Amino acid sequence: MTNLAVEAEAEELGFDARRLSRIDRRMARYVDEGLLPGWLTVVARHGRVAHLSSYGHRDLEAGLGVEVDTLWRIYSMTKPITSLAAMMLFEEGEFELTDPIHRWLPEFAEPRVFVKGSALRPVTEPATEPIRVWHLLTHTAGLTYGFHHAHPVDGIYRAAGFEWSTPQGKDLAACSEAWAELPLLFQPGTEWNYSVATDVLGRLVEVVSGMPLDRFFAERIFGPLGMTETSFHVDGDAVDRLAALYVPDPLTRRAKRNDTFGEAIKKKPACLQGGAGLVGTAADYHRFTQLLLRGGELDGTRLLSPRTVRLMTRNHLPGDVDLEQFGRPLFAEIPFNGFGFGLGFSVLRDPAKAKTLSSEGEFAWGGAASTAFWVDPAEGLTVLFFTQLMPSSTYPLRQQLRQLVYQALV
């Protein structure tokens, strides 16, 4: 188990310690008001932890507090890990970013695009452009999520069993084949829509590498990085460290336990979702962010070249526009104004437009249970936040955390 602890005085790393303590006071209010069960936050600069704090409970009903080794469902914070896996194979020459994915996933040979109609009676036309690898990495493939509830195709996904999870018993190969049969929202490459694209990318990793996704992660990423507590399910004694999952009560807004969703992580899933499936510790994800900050290398282990990390963390939206201009006005794990999208990460293009203290070039993502991370190369900064409240759009935790971290940087 990787240890996580404060490694330097705040002042030594350019922070005002008293200002950093504002993080704890502000975030504690969410717990004291019953809105969050508990949380853990990690602020590091130049690879050293300056601030590590937690508050509240990992399990309110059992009275168990948040600990440094608490296990958290990271949901969509799985996506950057899957993107890293794909780019490792890219570096090995296994594919080009412009390659059509049907070379490896023949089910996507003839995608069709929704033109008009309803979920029950869609009218479609053939795609004029194949889905390419970079479309999966950037969510521009035309795929979607059933939980969006914004378009007839979202309804088609729900009818096929894809809303917040995947149909029982279907593995990733079967899910990929099912997604390929559903219409696309738009012609590939013409818009941005948060989607199952990273799950399809995970299937591409499986086919190209000849390994199931969990084995690729374990052997090629988690083992080498010492991320020994990140996996697709929790069993044995580790269950005692798992945080419970909560949703806001519709009447009181107080955090209310949701075991219907929460218990799923205790069983090995049929579908290894590269877009949402992982659970792990703060220490493990801290290792992952340090790898990214250092350009693909950590403690002598290099998984990517610095050039590849730089390519992944620049804006890939056509015309270098932001998501506000190119995306559909739907849910995603970050705001759209001022943010572009790279190969697996949001990328901050314009701090003034985004109304944030963060630096241009910051890259980030979050998870459905309100977890979040960002990496700021300009300041050598990495920040992690863990809690377990779905959905992540309930409170402005991420925006506030940015304010609280950057105002302490002096």
Automatic annotation (TrEMBL):
Residues 23-398 form the Beta-lactamase-related domain. Pfam families: Beta-lactamase. It comes from Saccharomonospora marina XMU15. The lineage of its organism: Bacteria, Bacillati, Actinomycetota, Actinomycetes, Pseudonocardiales. PANTHER family: BETA-LACTAMASE FAMILY PROTEIN (AFU_ORTHOLOGUE AFUA_5G07500), BETA-LACTAMASE-RELATED. Signal peptide: none annotated. This is Penicillin-binding protein, beta-lactamase class C. InterPro entries: Beta-lactam-related, Beta-lactam/transpept-like, Diverse_Enzym_Activities.
